Amino acid sequence: MDEIPRRLTAKPSWLINQLSVHSRRLVSDAFAAAGARGYHYRLLAALHESGPASQAELGRRGRVDRSDVVAAINELAAQGYVERTPDPDHGRRNRITLTPEGARRLRDMDDVLDQVQDDLLGPLSAGDREALTRLLGRVLAHHEQG
């Protein structure tokens, strides 16, 4: 960082962007090594925390673009991690449900992602990590309110 102009390193937006690039690479590489993708984790986590949902609702919960949801659900269904059944309330909609194997896969992916967090935030103490996470969450919530 010595060669980078201080005007840049003094700006949180620049630092966040640089860390975002690094973080995305770490997550992508770790999930690829585990035979998974970030979309899989996001959708499985949404199902685990909020229960069965339509594909559109899952996309919103997991912040997965609707054009990517169907392909990701197809992959998860082919691996036995989710089940797709007709929604009894809407004939044209599918209801996606997490399977027991999907819950196990999510726990495995949690372990992968926990290791990524340790790699990414290695120089920080546990307290600093909690503070950073809390502060980033607060900034994100502020910008999503409007």
What does the model show?
The protein is mainly alpha-helical and 146 residues long. It is built from 7 helices and 3 strands. Helix 2 crosses helix 6, helix 3 (38-50) crosses helix 6 (100-120) and helix 4 crosses helix 5 (66-78). 18% of the residues are buried.
Describe the structure in brief.
This protein is 69% helix and 12% strand. It is mainly α and 146 residues long.
Write the topology of this structure:
Blueprint: H1 6-9, H2 12-33, H3 38-50, E1 53-54, H4 55-62, H5 66-78, E2 82-87, E3 90-98, H6 100-120, H7 126-145
Strand order of the largest sheet: 1-3-2
What string, H for helix and E for strand, traces the elements in order?
A: HHHEHHEEHH
Q: Number of DSSP helices?
A: 7
Q: Low-confidence runs (pLDDT<50, min 5 residues)?
A: none
Q: Cα distance, first to last residue?
A: 35 Å
Residue-averaged pLDDT, rounded?
A: 94
The class by helix and strand makeup works out as mainly alpha
Helix coverage percent: 55-70%
Give a short account of the largest sheet.
3 strands, antiparallel
| Global outline | elongated
Features:
3-stranded antiparallel sheet, mainly alpha, 12% strand
